[in-house]
């Protein structure tokens, strides 16, 4: 064992100049003072003549490995030998940590100065809620979040699509639940809902669109919740232009609970009501007068007196499913508009929509979209509108979604309201 240690740390005799130094190892196993830790012979610094010891023979001897203090007869005081570190390569190096700290400080200061001088936002609204986190306002009853309209969220008419605005509604709803500390394992489900394997499903949505934002517009979305009957919850939204405060969209929706395993509707447990009850706000985004103007979907969409358009073979893709394994409700809107005639989409814009969700569809479902068009839109008349009844159903005949939409003539971006409802102030 001793041989392996020696061969691992010290060179063999004759292999280096330090070999002769090892021969001077004393009986206790200690290295001589002139031998460094690397086995190289180092000459100690020579102290001044006044500090040198007159006789090295006066060094303390050792008996059985222990130092013995012997008093000399010639003097009552013992001579002391000052300690001096040997001049090795490492001792000669400068303090690199101090130099590195100085360089880092200079670099950070220069970078900060460059950033302050070079970064000049072209628009002040770009600084507002830059990361879109959102916040709770109005005594904890309203959640507000800002969105910048991206280039990939606009359509052929250079404005945001209805699907883009609907995605903003869904995003703020989930962020509201998360910020309030009520987000469980499900898609917007509370902790008590997650314990009971319950999820939210939308049963009805109504929306009014005053105008459509354009690329780089900043929109501000407010959302809140309220009770809807014994077992439902209502969620409302109000979207405004951030800079002008002009109303862009108002929407209301009704949500019910479904068992995630059985796919059947469920009553609202008292524990869940206790979680969401403190967040209820009785304010309504759409007034009763406005709601009366929103026609409900007809029970029978097929009407020979009206023009009918059909689009078949619609199938959900993997990207159309949410975390609860059913088709996202925004996707239904896209399918509904698939059967709308291109003449309406090119010259008109969606002014209002009412959707009744009847049945969810699965990943392997095959659907068809039907649209009945009634009414004529007169150019230049703000009161004229095209009305459409829509039906999205499975090929087996089961209804999935029924909808009613109204359309108004497109106007140049920035014009006043030409739709069915007046613009409300912020």
Explain the overall architecture:
It contains nine helices and 14 strands. Strands 3, 4, 5, 6, 7, 8, 9, 10, 11, 12, 13 and 14 form a twelve-stranded antiparallel beta sheet that branches. Strands 1-2 form a two-stranded antiparallel ribbon. It is of the alpha+beta class and 426 residues long. Helices cover 20% and strands 25% of the residues. The protein has helices at 2-9, 19-22, 96-118, 162-179, 191-195, 270-276, 288-293, 329-338, 342-347, and strands spanning 62-63, 66-67, 135-137, 142-148, 198-209, 218-228, 232-241, 247-259, 265-266, 307-314, 348-357, 367-374, 386-394, 399-409.
Write the layout of secondary structure elements.
Blueprint: H1 2-9, H2 19-22, E1 62-63, E2 66-67, H3 96-118, E3 135-137, E4 142-148, H4 162-179, H5 191-195, E5 198-209, E6 218-228, E7 232-241, E8 247-259, E9 265-266, H6 270-276, H7 288-293, E10 307-314, H8 329-338, H9 342-347, E11 348-357, E12 367-374, E13 386-394, E14 399-409
Antiparallel strand pairs: 1-2, 3-4, 4-6, 5-8, 5-11, 6-7, 7-8, 8-9, 10-12, 11-14, 12-13, 13-14
Helix pairs in contact: 4-8
